[in-house]
Amino acid sequence: MRLILLGPPGAGKGTQAQRIVEKYGIPQLSTGDMLRAAVAAKTEVGLKAEALMRDGKLVPDSVVNAIISERLDADDCKGGFILDGFPRTLIQADATEAMMKEKGIDLSAVISIEVDDKILADRVSGRYTCANCGAGYHDVNLKPKVEGVCDRCGSTHFKRRPDDTRETVVTRLSAYYRETSPLIGYYYAKGKLKTVDGMADIDKVSAEVDRILAGL
Ligand code: AP5
Ligand code: MG
């Protein structure tokens, strides 16, 4: 299964990707996570990306295309993968198609998570993750079962993203409408687009995603 998760910042791409990983055992390839790791490690890519990400602007296509092309060659992608937050521009979408053709693999589906813009700032500003295992939480919508303790690994250390501010969401949403939303039409025309209602609660969205995956 080779999937693309599409949606604005805070739509629930990462949340649903983590659940698909658990159920289907295929890896989540999040360009956002990979870039954040590069920033933390102060690599050349990280130094290029840091200020752009903090301001909510997109990192150049050439940078993310190279990251994904290399990542798709890893052994754990042989049985499928979930692209989370990539492609995000028409140039990246064309590059994805070329990469897959070259590697002799097909795209199974693109799942677009549809949400009302008004809730995105609340979703993003309430988000935090486990500093140890990366499990995602939310101040209101998804709390750990025991307050302050990660459900998955038991860690008591959590972190927030520097770009998760109400101000930066405005820039990120503009980038989404300008650069990423045209991909909805792009994949519709290719017969690959499936949509889910991202306004429903997390379990209901997962059930919709499961129904789509069962039909592939
Ligand atoms: P990236 O990390 O991809 O961020 P994003 O696209 O802005 O998306 P988010 O991760 O913010 O949202 P999400 O949809 O994953 O939501 P989540 O599931 O966490 O990219 C960051 C930056 O990196 C970009 O701005 C750019 O600079 C750069 N970048 C990355 N990829 C790039 C690319 N391809 N090209 C160029 N630049 C790139 O959910 C959010 C919160 O809501 C969570 O707390 C969750 O618990 C909660 N939640 C989720 N679903 C629900 C629900 N159904 N109901 C209630 N709450 C929910
Ligand atoms: Mg994410």
Q: What would you note in describing this structure?
A:
This protein is of the alpha/beta class and 216 residues long. The chain has nine helices and eight strands. It is 47% helix and 15% strand. A five-stranded parallel sheet has the order 2-3-1-4-8, sandwiched between helices. It is globular and about 45 Å long. The mean pLDDT is 96. It binds BIS(adenosine)-5'-pentaphosphate (AP5) and magnesium ion. BIS(adenosine)-5'-pentaphosphate binds next to helix 1, helix 2, helix 3, helix 6 and strand 6.
User: Shape, please?
Assistant: globular
Largest beta sheet: what is the strand line-up? Answer: 2-3-1-4-8
> Radius of gyration, Cα only, in angstroms?
17 Å
Query: Structural class from helices and strands?
Result: alpha/beta
Model regions low in confidence, pLDDT < 50 over at least 5 residues: none
Order of SSEs: EHEHHHEHEHEEEHHEH
The number of helical runs is 9
Helix percentage? 40-55%
Overall pLDDT confidence: 96
E-strand count: 8
Instruction: Indicate the proportion of strand residues.
Output: 5-15%
Largest sheet: 5 strands, parallel
Cα separation of the termini: 8 Å
Could you say which small molecules are bound to this protein? BIS(adenosine)-5'-pentaphosphate, magnesium ion
Please write out the topology.
Elements: E1 2-6, H1 13-24, E2 28-30, H2 31-40, H3 44-54, H4 61-72, E3 81-84, H5 90-103, E4 109-114, H6 120-125, E5 127-130, E6 136-138, E7 158-159, H7 166-180, H8 182-189, E8 193-197, H9 202-214
Parallel strand pairs: 1-3, 1-4, 2-3, 4-8
Antiparallel strand pairs: 5-6, 5-7
Helix pairs in contact: 1-9, 2-3, 4-5
The structure holds BIS(adenosine)-5'-pentaphosphate (AP5) and magnesium ion (MG).
